[in-house]
Structures are given as C-alpha cells and as structure tokens.
Amino acid sequence: MLTGSIVVLSNRPDRDRALADAVGAVSECRLIGLDERWAEIDDVIGIIANVNLTEPEARRCLTLLLRRLQGRRMPFIHLVRNSTASTVREAQAFGATACLSSLLDSNTVVEALFRQIQPDSTVSELVVQRQIARTGTLINSMFKTAATGQIDMQEVEQGLDPVLNAVKEGGLTGWLEVVRAHDDVTFQHCLLVAGLTAGFARSLGLSSKDSHLMVRAALVHDVGKSRIPPEILNKPGRLDPDEFTVMRTHAPIGHEILLASGNCDPITLAVTRHHHELLDGSGYPDGLSSDAIADPVRLLTICDIYSALIERRPYKKPLPETEALRILHGMAGKLEDGLVAAFAKSISTDCRHPIAT
C-alpha cells in the first residue's frame, strides 16, 4: 500500500474539493491554498497544482516549495489553462513533471499522477488497497472496544463507502485478492464477507440505501467474536465439541453488544444474531427455520459460508471458486436455492479465474 500523502495546491481550494476527494480515494491527501508555508514536506510523494502562474502569490508559493524540496524531485502535475510552449516551460521551471489541461476530469488527472508514483499498479488496485486498509483499521478498533464495552455505530458508518467504492472500482476479484493476503483470520473473514456482500448487492441491483444496510450488517456480524477466548478464536486446528459450543455463543453475544451500543437498525441486529441459522432449522443459536429467517439474513449467510470456504486457515487450504460454489449448491433445503444461484452468478461474472492459490 502507498505511504505518504499527495498535496493538491489550489488558488481556490473550494473549487478543487472534487479533485482532492478523487485523490483521497487512493492516498492521503491535503488540499491547500497559496498561503501554504510547506512546513511539512517530508511525507509528500506527489503534487497537483491548479494555480495560475501569472499570479504573484502562486509564484511565491511554488518558489518556497522548491526551496523546501532542496533539489528533490517528485511527481508534480501542473494543471494549465493553455498548453503553449512558454506555459509548459514555466511550469517545468517550478518543478512540474507533467502539464495537463485544467479542463480534464479529476479521475484522469489522478490516474496521470499515480502512473508516475507507482507505475506497476493501476489506480483501481490502489483504491482497493487503500479502502481495505481504512476498513481494516475500523474493524480492529471495533473489536477492541467491543471486547470490554460497546461499539460506535457512527464509526462503523465510515466503513461502508470504502467497501462499496472499492468493489465498484476494483471489482470483487481485486478485493478478495488483497484481503486474503492478511494473516489475521477474523480480520480477513469480516472483510471478505463485507466485500462479497457488496458485490452480491451490486449484482442484485439493490438500492444504495439497501446496499449500505447490508454492508453495515456484514462489517459487524461477527463482533461477538471479540469476547471469545483467544485460545479458541485463534486455535490453529479444528475446535473440539466444547470449544465449538463456546464459539457458537458469538452470535447472541454480538447481538447483545449491538443492543447495548444503541443506534443499530433491526436488520443489522437480526443478521448478527441469526447469520448461522438455516432454513431446515438445523442452525444456531435459536434454531429458526423457513419464513422465520428474513431475506437479508439469508443473503448474508450465503456470503458468510462462501467466505469460510475460500479462506486459508491453519488447518485447511482455501477451496477454489468452483468447489465452494458446488458446496453451496449442495446445501439445498438449508439455503435458499434462488439466492444461491444469484450469488453464483455474481461470483462468476466478476471472478474470471479461481480465487484460491
């Protein structure tokens, strides 16, 4: 993942908020004006300047930047109103490594900058890496606070768009590949389920509101594991019957944590408590069956099971896509057939090669 920040320099920062947001999807970003003193420059890895060099303040600001850099060159895109030879030469004199039209859309400018910074990665790949890091930080924080107290649902909200945007920009395959590079099993599982749920919701054509609702439920569905003893949660092997009994308590514990935390919608509460229920009544913790299991729970249960099948665990190798889907199709009577078929379609549409390695 990228380290360091990008600076967007503008003579009108309010005008360039969209550009800064586009950069922020890929990397840390600072949007600054012409009064910048460049006191913090060590972590800067790239610059986009949307200023008019005929303005004395713009020239003063860039001159100060050159002094602070002390000869260090970095990717620097200068947005220009016209691309005459004299304009380009002047921008290059102030350190620009490329000049682009100020009329270009933000995403094109961002792609041009990051081709200089990290040419071996696409912007979509960088977006996925950044959003996974952001969401992972949120999950780690959530599990730490939930272990002894409540969670902040407003903080959880901050993790929804990163998941949805990353799956939209980089595809489900990109999300799964990056997430599965992480070693922490619980961390990996929560992110896998969130990504699978976002991709499934997108494939089903769910509204933005419903997609956010499902990803919210996916992010917190296993929060009860924060209170499962580490020696059971992280056991490098299969659980014995007594340990499995303890592990099963994570669903009702998670439900209790969310109730105590407040501001939690009924669907997220239901998903957290019932994501291990099965249509034939053989699931847990309440042995629900048939119509007692709501549609959002049925949807996320499929994502949860598939995620467990493709994950790498100390005691098992990840299954390839085709084998994992075969197992889901074999759970007729336990999972809703129509939803399994729709999920398989969403996976095969996005994942054009086996997930397991």
Automatic annotation (TrEMBL):
CDD domains: HDc. It comes from Methylobacterium gnaphalii. Residues 164-357 form the HD-GYP domain. This is HD-GYP domain-containing protein. GO terms for molecular function: phosphoric diester hydrolase activity. Pfam families: HD_5. The lineage of its organism: Bacteria, Pseudomonadati, Pseudomonadota, Alphaproteobacteria, Hyphomicrobiales. NCBIfam families: HDIG. Transmembrane segments: none annotated. It comes from the Bacteria.
